[in-house]
């Protein structure tokens, strides 16, 4: 897809974090950029409720990617961003969660820099923050873990490798993005490096949304319980965290009201 410049003022691209799905979790700055946009290039996982907040005259373009499925090529997305901006359009590149985390942000910025197009980044609430709030826990805790790892379950080469020996140590906590399909691979690597099979693992599907689901399991039972749950939406996996009892009670109460 070739970018062609027209006469007139140069456009701009705002990289906006759309948050995990609840429209009330958008920042004011994100909402402002979103409503000024003439063109919105958005990910597949952006919730319909968030997309409804776009400016009345904004053109919405779905450039979503699906893990191991049909996807837009990154080069085509880059070219589309450049093309719209060179035509003088105010473009929002709307990314699920926070644009700086597993969002291929650098590749798109590099394309804009090469074309001399100005851009800004508007941070968003990442899925890990919303999901951990949904299970009543914190990502770090004195006496348990002073650090937390943000990992991806798969990358461009397939299932992603990590420092499994460090992750297998007692007290480790990790937030694993795109980890459903790689659950058995992750389980095997951790157990091979000495992780306790009883280590808690929690999966949160559709974090922050009305249809949020929580699956509490252990490293030993992870693949089996994941298969039994049949999660169809985006899910974040917490290694080393279990839902707090109070959060479980709230979840069950909300189910009864539904």
Sum up the structure in keywords:
21% strand, five-stranded mixed β-sheet, S-adenosyl-L-methionine, Methyltransferase, Cobalt-precorrin-4 Transmethylase, Domain 2, EC 2.1.1.107, 258 residues, alpha/beta, 9 helices, 12 strands, five-stranded parallel β-sheet, disordered N terminus, uroporphyrinogen-III C-methyltransferase, porphyrin biosynthesis, transferase
Low-pLDDT residue intervals, each spanning 5 or more residues: 1-7
- Strand tally, please? 12
Helix content: 25-40%
Query: What's the CATH topology label of the largest domain?
Result: Methyltransferase, Cobalt-precorrin-4 Transmethylase, Domain 2
CATH class of the largest domain: Alpha Beta
Strand line-up of the largest beta sheet: 3-2-4-1-5
Shape: elongated
CATH architecture of the largest domain: 2-Layer Sandwich
Q: Can you tell me the CATH superfamily of the largest domain?
A: Tetrapyrrole methylase, C-terminal domain
* Tally of distinct domains: 2
How would you sum up the major sheet? Answer: 5 strands, parallel
Number of helices: 9
Give the CA-CA distance, first to last residue.
47 Å
Reading the helices and strands in chain order gives EHEHEHEHEHEEEHEHEEHEH
Pathway: Porphyrin-containing compound metabolism; siroheme biosynthesis; precorrin-2 from uroporphyrinogen III: step 1/1
Pfam families: TP_methylase (PF00590)
Family: Belongs to the precorrin methyltransferase family.
Protein name: uroporphyrinogen-III C-methyltransferase
Describe what you observe in this structure:
The radius of gyration is 20 Å and the shape is elongated. It is an alpha/beta fold and 258 residues long. It folds into two domains: 12-122, Tetrapyrrole methylase, N-terminal domain (Cobalt-precorrin-4 Transmethylase, domain 1); 127-257, 2-Layer Sandwich (Methyltransferase, Cobalt-precorrin-4 Transmethylase, Domain 2). The chain has helices at 28-36, 48-51, 74-86, 105-115, 127-134, 164-167, 183-192, 222-229, 245-257; strands at residues 12-17, 39-42, 59-62, 90-95, 119-122, 149-152, 154-155, 158-159, 174-177, 200-205, 213-218, 235-239. The longest helix has 13 residues, at 74-86.
């Amino acid at each position: 897809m070739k970018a062609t410049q027209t006469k007139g003022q140069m456009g701009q691209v705002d990289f906006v974090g759309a948050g995990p799905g609840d429209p009330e979790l958008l920042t004011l700055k994100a909402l402002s950029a979103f409503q000024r946009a003439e063109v919105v290039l958005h990910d597949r996982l952006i919730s319909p409720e968030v997309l409804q907040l776009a400016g009345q005259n904004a053109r919405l373009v779905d450039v979503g990617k699906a893990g191991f499925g049909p996807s837009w090529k990154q080069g085509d997305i880059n070219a589309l961003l450049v093309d719209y901006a060179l035509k003088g359009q105010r473009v929002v590149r709307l990314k699920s969660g926070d644009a700086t985390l597993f969002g291929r942000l650098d590749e798109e910025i590099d394309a804009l820099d090469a074309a001399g197009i100005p851009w800004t980044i508007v941070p968003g609430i990442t899925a890990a923050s919303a999901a951990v709030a949904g299970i009543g826990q914190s990502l770090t805790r004195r006496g348990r873990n002073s650090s937390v790892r943000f990992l991806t379950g798969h990358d461009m080469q397939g299932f992603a490798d990590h420092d499994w020996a460090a992750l297998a140590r007692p007290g480790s906590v990790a937030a694993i993005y795109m980890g459903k399909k790689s659950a058995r691979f992750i389980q095997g690597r951790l157990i091979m490096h000495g992780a306790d099979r009883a280590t808690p693992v929690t999966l949160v599907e559709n974090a922050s949304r009305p249809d949020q689901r929580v699956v509490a399991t252990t490293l030993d039972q992870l693949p089996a319980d994941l298969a039994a749950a049949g999660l169809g939406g985006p899910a974040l996996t917490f290694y080393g965290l279990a839902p707090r009892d109070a959060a479980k009670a709230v979840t069950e109460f909300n189910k009864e009201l539904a």
